[in-house]
Write a structure and sequence with these properties.
This protein has a 16-stranded antiparallel barrel with strand order 1-2-3-4-5-6-7-8-9-10-11-12-13-14-15-16. The chain contains three helices and 16 strands. The protein has one domain (5-20, 28-88, 151-256). The chain has helices at residues 8-14, 24-27, 182-188, and strands spanning 41-43, 52-57, 63-68, 70-76, 82-87, 90-97, 100-108, 111-121, 127-134, 145-152, 158-163, 169-174, 210-215, 218-227, 233-241, 247-256. It has 257 residues and is mainly β.
């Protein structure tokens, strides 16, 4: 489950499209106060070979497990945010400040603290930069850091994202509907690394859904959605383009709430 460096430039550039400047008091509201509904199932196909994710909740509506290949049990802290997700020697531990996620620590039995991700915010609550640091448990990149930086307009909408050496700049277009994972992010601080997820279109803290992404001015990604009556995506069909403008990935994801 360790990270793949080849994907990092795109991954980091996508991360923070949907971060908003909501107040800490809003961050602390529960799902009922914000009238969210939660995703329970997603799949990239209808046959036996399809990849799926299943989300389960307790009788109070709090997330308790996430299944993808294996079943990750979820533990919440005293402010009802995710403290850890764990399965058979693997754990993802999360730390908060003023109800905002500031650190994610990945560990395995044989590779403790092999990766730490750190979030820094502006005074408006927008992510200013993101830094990942590899620990001694990551044998190929111990001590190595990677960074990403973000710019916004006066309304808090993401304008651009870039990596530390400016080799790639991404700009975005997105809809005004609800990202399927955003309710989990706002309610519980749920963070999913898309490199180990089947839906690598969006990060959990995107408030809305990306429809187009341009890399250095060229169209790289394009998506279309169908929605339910509450504005939640039912399906997402997305395409990725290579530098010649040819489609190299065409995929459809289904969502159930």
């Amino acid at each position: 489950m360790k990270k793949n460096n080849v994907l990092f430039s795109l991954i980091l550039a996508l991360i923070f499209l949907g971060c908003s400047s909501d107040s800490d008091s809003e961050d602390s509201k529960n799902s009922n106060e914000m009238n969210f509904k939660f995703i329970t199932y997603m799949s990239d196909g209808d046959d036996e070979y399809a990849d799926t994710m299943i989300f389960k909740y307790d009788n109070s509506g709090n997330i308790e497990s996430v299944f993808q290949d294996v079943n990750f049990m979820v533990q919440l802290n005293n402010i009802n945010k995710i403290e850890s997700m764990y399965f058979d020697g693997y754990s993802q531990t999360q730390e908060y400040s003023n109800n905002k996620l500031v650190k994610v620590i990945y560990s395995e039995d044989l590779s403790p603290n092999y990766l730490t991700g750190m979030f820094n915010y502006t005074n408006d609550g927008l992510v200013k930069d993101y830094i990942e640091e590899f620990g001694e448990g990551y044998e190929y990149n111990a001590g190595y850091e990677r960074s990403a930086y973000f710019t916004y307009d006066s309304n808090g909408t993401l304008l651009t994202s870039r990596n530390e050496d400016n080799t790639g700049v991404l700009s975005y277009e997105f809809d005004d509907k609800i990202n399927p994972f955003y309710p989990l992010w706002k309610s519980f601080g749920y963070y999913m690394d898309p490199e180990i997820g089947i839906y690598d279109v969006t990060f959990t803290f995107f408030e809305h859904n990306p429809t187009k992404i341009f890399k250095n001015g060229e169209l790289y990604f394009e998506a279309s959605y169908t929605y339910d009556s509450d504005g939640y995506p039912k399906t997402c069909n997305y395409k990725r383009y290579n530098s010649s403008g040819d489609v190299y990935q065409d995929k459809t994801i289904q969502f159930v709430y």
